[in-house]
Amino acid sequence: MPGGTAREGMGPELTTTHEKQTHTTHAGLAAWVEQVAELTQPRDIRWITGSPEEWTELTDQLVDAGTFVRLDESKKPNSFYCASDPTDVARVEDRTFICSVEEKDAGPTNNWMAPDEMKARMTELYRGSMRGRTMYVIPFVMGHLDAKAPMFGVEITDSAYVVVSMLVMARCGDEVLRKIEETDASYVPALHSVGAPLAEDETDVRWPCSDTKYIVHFPEERAIWSYGSGYGGNALLGKKCYALRIASAVARDEGWMAEHMLILKLTSPKGSVRYIAAAFPSACGKTNLAMITPTIPGWKAEMVGDDIAWMRFGEDGRLYAVNPEFGLFGVAPGTGESTNPNAMATIDRGNSVFTNVALTDDGDVWWEGMTDEPPAHLTDWLGNDWTPADGEAGTKAAHPNSRFCTPAKQCPMIAPEYDSPDGVPIDAILFGGRRKTTVPLVYESRDWTHGTFIGATLSSETTAAATGAVGVVRRDPMAMLPFIGYHAGDYMNHWLEIGKSADASRLPRIFGVNWFRRDDEDGSFLWPGFGENSRVLKWVVERLEGDADAVETAIGFVPTADSLDVDGLDLTREQVAKAIRVDDADWEAELPLIQEWFDRFGEQLPAELWAQFDALKARVSAG
Ligand code: GTP
Ligand code: SPV
Ligand code: MN
């Protein structure tokens, strides 16, 4: 993989000089750091080592600056509350660009600008943008340091908040840098500035950022430039920018997959182990399913990953998934003892950063859905006094996209396989979204190509994870719409190619799910969700093992009335039937929306997917 690493022309003398100045023997890296410093003019440069002392120093400094509030040690040890600027709370999809050399390679779903033009524009933004600030250099690896081909990156940032968050979210520091040096490895250069230079004597604001934002990817060069935002997905560049957008382009070239998926290990009462991956759009339930506490007896769940899966074929022809991340950056609202006790236990162990949640008077955090009753008084995410009366009047104490940033290893049900650089063999893939209507609780595809069609036409109501309207149904192919680093039509084709390159019997089986269907009479959720989703997982596993019945419908196989285990569930037969129902008239109404979506891709929409569309249409009208 090419990166900013050219060593050519660098004599040993120059390397020695660089070593003194920048703490690396890697000439390409030293040169890039110097070049960025020259452009951005920071006050000083600091290389991130990953030591505990460094964490303490940086978090103390963030507390002194007013960016962090240290939480009570007895409640959340070594943890911090942080409120962002109210304008910088989510991913900015309209400011996110895929700057491929050719516009056609970015496709119809990405913003594009010519790389030279974008670089010229951003170079002017970066000029002097770190004045008065420290420039941090963070060597990191996505995935395992001892992977066959470790996926290195180096983020340069002028935000200590970003450094602390990256230390949680990725494997960072000296050990990584040494390996980059020893193997003269290439790495993805990832440049980030909040875009808020400080004049001499100017006091800093709590959350520096800029009204001008650019989140930019150069897929051929494997480089990332980000400017103006401090929010997770815009600023922690190892996560969405590298592990999805850049990695998806690498994966296409190299025959593997970078996906927005959780990875779950399930053990049945019989002791059989299955690994399930699931792609749901942002804020649609990945972290919750990854940490599920099954409500049905005898089933055990363990988390391998909660947001990103990198999948490659193993020597046995099966698809193996690894979680490239080191932490969890989870949606706070809705997370509580009754919905996700494993997440609560994870954050209770401390070492976490909470952004845009509410602060309690006794130095803890709170958000909607943590407990049934809110505390009598809070400081809300905007810094205002908040009481339950404000809640009743509709003012949220926590921003809907407030997040906890916490080490994955603190999760009490993390699978030992999390530490395996080779990953786990995936048995089933679930595609799901938020749909009030139409899409049943669970259905199974006919084969990989049909499953690819289900993924390619996945739809969901938009959430607060990105700026813009919430609750609008949009197509979100494989839950990757905001994260595909190239042409989305080519991405769908890559899925089909993966299927063709494999022995069909070894491929994961593909299912669709929807936890969010509503009762059209009273608008309530038809399915209780959370731990009860284990019943759906059980049906999926039993389908894999040939033990569960299904009926064929226009869209695939759905559970028979008796094959879904609803034992002990407080639902009437009628409610269950409503949740799993496939209504041909609903799907007839869906067809023009799918057609409109596919039409956007013109010639680049794989013919197999049009064939799937025609087959669905024929089945719906025959129904
Ligand atoms: P990203 O981190 O943005 O990629 O999101 P995610 O897919 O990991 O979503 P997450 O699990 O954090 O869930 C987002 C929201 O959906 C939270 O408010 C959850 O409480 C809610 N949620 C998750 N699972 C269910 C479910 O089964 N039923 C219902 N009704 N809500 C759910
Ligand atoms: C998402 O939006 O899908 C997230 C949060 O997982 S962020 O990392 O900010 O993109
Ligand atoms: Mn995500």
Automatic annotation (TrEMBL):
Substrate binds at R91, Y231, G232, G233, S282, N401, S402, R403. Pathway: Carbohydrate biosynthesis; gluconeogenesis. CDD domains: PEPCK_GTP. Its main location: cytoplasm. PROSITE patterns: PEPCK_GTP. Residues 1-24 are annotated as: Disordered. It catalyses: oxaloacetate + GTP = phosphoenolpyruvate + GDP + CO2. It comes from the Bacteria. The keyword Metal-binding applies. InterPro entries: PEP_carboxykin_GTP_CS, PEP_carboxykinase_C, PEP_carboxykinase_GTP, PEP_carboxykinase_GTP_C, PEP_carboxykinase_GTP_N, PEP_carboxykinase_N. Mn(2+) binds at K240, H260, D307. GTP binds at A283, C284, G285, K286, T287, N288, R403, R434, F530, G531, E532, N533. Its cofactor is Mn(2+). The active site is at C284. Pfam families: PEPCK_GTP, PEPCK_N. Keywords: Cytoplasm, Decarboxylase, Gluconeogenesis, GTP-binding, Lyase, Manganese, Metal-binding, Nucleotide-binding. Binds 1 Mn(2+) ion per subunit. Belongs to the phosphoenolpyruvate carboxykinase [GTP] family. Catalyzes the conversion of oxaloacetate (OAA) to phosphoenolpyruvate (PEP), the rate-limiting step in the metabolic pathway that produces glucose from lactate and other precursors derived from the citric acid cycle. This is Phosphoenolpyruvate carboxykinase [GTP]. It comes from Terrabacter terrae. The gene is pckG.
